[in-house]
Amino acid sequence: PDQAHGLRRLYAKQRARPVVLVHNPQVVYAAVAIEQLVWALSAQGLHTLVVDAASSARPASPAALNHLSSCIEVLRPGVSYLAAQGLPVRFAQAQGQVPAFIDQLRVAASVDDVVLIHADAADLALMFGAQPLRPVVLVDAANDSVCTAYGSLKSLAQQVPMTTFDCLMVGPASARPPARIASCLASCGARFLGASLRHWTS
């Protein structure tokens, strides 16, 4: 399916809830996928704060722990960005927990629409704790990418309530059909994790 159309379908009416992307270091075009997702959300008229806490992101500013708003960059009307590598752990060390992290992000950025969080599985588990989570897994056609995506899902399922997940195929067309990759993740998720694949797009 057309990726832009698929993203609009998946994330229409996502107001007042986080969109959670699971970082996959094997996915080369993750930044492109994030940009397309932001455009899809903007097409719904939603203001998006992108919080990049992945291990590949820029380290969070030392000021972010106490002055989040001063560290948020406005990229264009309706889109803001926070470099947040290492911030969830620092939040946990300072406060003992981070469930209120997303709420503080909303207040700091004056965002009442979408907070898009891109982070490794361990940091997502730290951020969400006992809160139910429906993550979006990034994956491409490479076997290592699929294995890494499943490993992240397994790590999340062991630490947070997760009964469903979505899948976003990233990268150029390949000889391996996207539907086959989605089917593989869906079957493994259902069989070993008790989690079902709700939607996928490529």
What does this structure look like?
The structure is a single chain. With 202 residues, the chain is of the alpha/beta class. It has helices at 3-11, 30-43, 68-71, 87-95, 101-109, 121-128, 143-157, 178-193; strands at 17-22, 48-52, 73-76, 79-83, 114-119, 136-139, 164-169, 196-201. Strands 3-4-2-5-1-6-7-8 form an 8-stranded mixed β-sheet, sandwiched between helices. Strand 3 (73-76) and strand 4 (79-83) form a beta hairpin. Helix 1 crosses helix 2 and helix 7 runs parallel beside helix 8 (178-193). The longest helix is centred in the last third of the chain and has 16 residues, at 178-193.
Quick recap of the structure?
This protein has 8 helices and 8 strands. 42% of the residues lie in helices and 21% in strands.
Helical content band: 40-55%
Spans of at least 5 consecutive residues whose pLDDT stays below 50 are 1-5
* CA distance, first residue to last residue: 6 Å
Order of helices and strands: HEHEHEEHHEHEHEHE
Given the helix and strand composition, which structural class is it? alpha/beta
